[in-house]
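quick one before i forget lol
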Amino acid sequence: MANIIDGKKIAAEVRAEIAAECAELKAKGVTPGLAVIIVGEDPASKVYVRNKKKGCEEVGFHSEVYELPEATTEEELLALVHKLNRDEAIHGILVQLPLPKHLNDEIIIQNIDPKKDVDAFHEINVGKIMIGNYDFLPCTPAGVMVLLEKSGIDVCGKECVVVGRSNIVGKPQAMLLLHANGTVTVCHSRTKDLAEVTRRADILVVAIGKADFVTGDMVKEGAVVIDVGMNRKVDGKLTGDVDFATVEPKASYITPVPGGVGPMTITMLLRNTLTAAKKTLK
């Protein structure tokens, strides 16, 4: 029976640390500030934005939310981004994805000041992550690394398998595991004999976006299994990319969905914003 990695508990511990550091920073005259931009009426995006605002309040940050109509033009959105780039009260800028189809995600992200890019999606920050000399880390992969660390799981020398190669999770996750001296394999839709590869993993991170995709027969006995997936079943219940019922009996550690990786993502966003604010003191 696996140890359950409690993401809610670990996120609360990290947020307490962030709140304490925020209080110290305020005493020096700097209040960390996060601006979140949302375009359109996507219900899931609205929930994420509300949670980010709530997270800021919890740790003592200043936050601003810009809710723009679906018809917002690229020029209008870029004008707001450039305004926030110049705003000294704002240390982090986040544009909630996905954007409406008429807007180019990449153009918008590359116009965010890299020093305020708390999602760590700007190509400068991506390059810094590649060489290991970074200021910010993408929030979900960073959250996974904190979950491993706080659970006493040492990555060094372990066989690590990442299922999924997105720019937001899979690729940066592989880099962070590599920086921690793991031996890393990245799997994707073209991988042959996927189950054979996943069964080699001491640490298996699944971020493929398919409900209950990884089953017990794909996991080595005693593996650490991190489920990044968030899928909604027809009955409305949330489930991950890992079939918890068949994998949990084989794993040594496993993250549940919900309550595993999810709570860490916004927590790491707060940590990145704190880091950006600290840098203004130097």
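fyi Residues 22 and 60 are 7 Å apart (CA to CA).
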